[in-house]
Design brief:
Length: 157
């Protein structure tokens, strides 16, 4: 599979809504929530006015001219918030493209991008049952906090 990872373009920012929905972890046997769940304020902070802050950075993965994944960061008071200098990360791939190391490649690209722009760390929140937890640990994220359902993880750049 020929995958291109590149910076997201302004006209592609609306696609982040789709990828935000795709990023919602749905455990086996659980009915997916309605698409309009992403209009809730606690989820809109990931995408609303994306690109307007100097701390908004995003990449997309493309196969055959189709955008199939996105990874983006911004400093926001989300589930993975550490402090006001640490961007929080969101990543999402369409289901049929998972398991091909595309997510790992996107993560490595965004970490390189953040380091080149002077950030010292990046954080994320992930549900403990999410298979992506293993990928984050393998890449080098560390668990810094946890509650019953989630880990808050940090990668030091």
């Amino acid at each position: 599979m020929d995958v291109t990872i590149r910076k997201i373009q302004k006209q592609e920012y609306p696609l982040l809504d789709n990828f935000l929905y795709e990023a919602i972890f749905i455990p086996e046997g659980i009915e997916p929530p309605p698409k309009n769940i992403i209009s809730s304020p606690e989820l809109q902070i990931y995408v609303k006015h994306f690109g307007e802050s100097k701390d908004d950075w995003g990449l997309v993965a493309e196969v055959g001219g189709k955008i199939i994944g996105a990874v983006w960061v911004r400093i926001m008071n989300d589930y993975g918030h550490i402090d006001d200098e640490t961007p929080s990360l969101a990543i999402s791939l369409y289901k049929e493209y998972r398991g091909f190391s595309i997510g790992t490649a996107m993560m490595k690209e965004i970490l390189t991008l953040l380091k080149s722009h002077g950030y010292s760390r990046v954080s994320l929140s992930v549900q403990k049952a999410n298979y992506a937890t293993k990928m984050y640990l393998k890449i080098g994220f560390e668990i810094v906090k946890e509650n019953e359902e989630e880990y808050i993880m940090v990668y030091y750049l």
